[in-house]
C-alpha cells in the first residue's frame, strides 16, 4: 500500500468517525434517547480468577448478566481499579474492597458510555464511622469534591451491600452524588440524557402534589426529602435494591430512572 493511499484511507476513516459522532449520534439521541453505542472494547481487560470469584460470590447483578455482558462488566471493574487510588485509613485495602466498590460503581453506570468520572481520583476507606472535617461530624460516607475523594466506612459499605432489601446502600448513595454532579456539568451523550430525565425526576420532589403522593405511599424513606441531591440518591438505592416494588408502586418515576441511566433489562438475558 502506497503512502498516499494509506493517508487517503486514514482521512476517510477520520471523516466517517466525525460524521457518526457529530451528525448521526445527535439524531440517534433525539430518536431513541440513548447513545448510539455503549460497550466497545477492542482490547478488553480481564480480571484474575480470584477477583472474578469475588463477583460471583458477592455480586448478584453480575451473576444475572449474560456471558458477553459479564466480560464488559469485568473490563469496567478492571479499568475502575486502575484509574482510581484506594487509600486505607487504619485499615488494609483488600481485593474484596476494591471489587465490591468498583462493582457498585460499574453497576450504577453500566448503561453509560463514558463512565470514568474525573470529579474524584481516590477512594478513602475507614474501618467504621469517621470524623469528617467537612462539617465536624461523624460520617458513614461522603463525596468530597475539594480533595476529589469518595470516603466510605467499610463497615457501613459492607452492610449496605450485603443487605439487599432494605433500600439502604452506602456505595450506591455516594456514587449517585458523584454521578449527579458530573451530569450537571458534562455534555457527553449519557450525561445529556441523565440531565434531561433528572429534570423530570426532580418534579417528584419540587411539585407539592407529586411529592405528597410519594410521601403517602411511604416507599421512600424520609431522608429522600431533605434536598434534591438526597432525593436522587435515595431513589437510585431503591431502584437497584427493590426494583420490582419500585416499578409496581411508582411506574412512571421508575420509567424515568430507566431512561436516565440507560438501564436495560435485556442485560440479563
Automatic annotation (TrEMBL):
Taxonomic superkingdom: Bacteria
InterPro entries with a match to the protein in the record: MtfA_fam, MtfA_N
TM annotation in the entry: 6-24
Keywords annotated in UniProt: Membrane, Transmembrane, Transmembrane helix
Keyword Membrane: yes
Family annotation (Pfam families): Peptidase_M90
PANTHER family the record matches: MTFA PEPTIDASE (PTHR30164), PROTEIN MTFA (PTHR30164:SF2)
Protein name: Zinc-dependent peptidase
Source organism of this protein record: Flavobacterium zhoui
Taxonomy of the source species: Bacteria, Pseudomonadati, Bacteroidota, Flavobacteriia, Flavobacteriales
Amino acid at each position: 500500500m502506497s503512502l498516499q493511499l494509506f493517508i487517503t484511507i486514514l482521512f476517510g476513516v477520520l471523516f466517517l468517525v466525525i460524521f457518526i459522532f457529530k451528525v448521526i449520534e445527535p439524531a440517534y439521541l433525539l430518536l431513541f434517547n440513548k447513545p448510539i453505542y455503549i460497550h466497545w472494547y477492542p482490547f478488553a481487560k480481564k480480571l484474575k480468577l480470584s477477583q472474578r470469584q469475588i463477583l460471583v460470590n458477592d455480586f448478584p447483578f453480575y451473576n444475572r448478566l449474560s456471558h458477553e455482558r459479564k466480560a464488559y462488566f469485568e473490563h469496567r471493574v478492571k479499568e475502575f481499579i486502575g484509574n482510581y487510588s484506594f487509600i486505607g485509613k487504619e485499615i488494609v485495602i483488600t481485593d474484596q474492597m476494591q471489587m465490591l466498590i468498583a462493582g457498585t460503581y460499574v453497576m450504577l453506570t453500566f448503561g453509560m458510555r463514558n463512565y470514568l468520572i474525573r470529579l474524584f481520583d481516590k477512594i478513602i476507606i475507614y474501618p467504621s464511622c469517621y470524623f469528617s472535617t467537612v462539617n465536624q461530624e461523624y460520617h458513614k460516607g461522603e463525596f468530597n469534591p475539594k480533595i476529589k475523594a469518595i470516603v466510605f466506612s467499610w463497615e457501613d459499605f459492607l452492610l449496605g451491600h450485603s443487605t439487599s432489601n432494605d433500600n439502604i446502600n452506602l456505595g450506591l448513595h455516594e456514587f449517585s452524588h458523584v454521578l449527579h454532579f458530573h451530569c450537571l456539568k458534562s455534555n457527553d451523550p449519557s450525561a445529556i440524557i441523565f440531565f434531561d430525565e433528572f429534570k423530570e425526576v426532580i418534579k417528584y420532589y419540587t411539585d407539592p402534589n407529586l411529592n405528597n403522593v410519594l410521601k403517602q405511599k411511604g416507599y421512600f424513606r424520609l431522608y429522600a426529602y431533605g434536598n434534591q441531591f438526597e432525593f436522587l440518591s435515595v431513589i437510585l438505592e431503591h431502584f437497584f435494591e427493590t426494583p420490582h416494588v419500585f416499578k409496581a408502586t411508582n411506574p412512571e418515576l421508575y420509567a424515568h430512572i430507566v431512561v436516565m441511566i440507560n438501564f436495560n433489562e435485556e442485560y440479563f438475558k
